[in-house]
Amino acid sequence: MRVEFDEDTCIGMYQCVAEWDAFSKDKSAGKAVLEGSEEETEGIFVRDVPGDAELDAKFAARTCPVDAITIYDDDGEQLIP
């Protein structure tokens, strides 16, 4: 499973931070940060989701009010939003 985070879309509600510890707050930027991720393209950060964190990652994506978090399965199929 893979998570994609669109930092430009993020509005800093930090609901993802409450759902998955891979997200943290960057209060100076007013955005969430996807820890351990790499910038795939400008403003888009990606990382693999460990097996034991899949449910947390899905909850983080579902709670994002602006759909800045997308979850993909191992075949590249979009699961969430």
Automatic annotation (TrEMBL):
<keyword id="KW-0249">Electron transport</keyword>
<dbReference type="GO" id="GO:0046872">
    <property type="term" value="F:metal ion binding"/>
</dbReference>
<protein>
    <submittedName>
        <fullName>Ferredoxin</fullName>
    </submittedName>
</protein>
<dbReference type="InterPro" id="IPR051269">
    <property type="entry name" value="Fe-S_cluster_ET"/>
</dbReference>
<dbReference type="Pfam" id="PF13459">
    <property type="entry name" value="Fer4_15"/>
</dbReference>
<dbReference type="GO" id="GO:0051536">
    <property type="term" value="F:iron-sulfur cluster binding"/>
</dbReference>
<keyword id="KW-0411">Iron-sulfur</keyword>
<keyword id="KW-0479">Metal-binding</keyword>
<keyword id="KW-0813">Transport</keyword>
<keyword id="KW-0408">Iron</keyword>
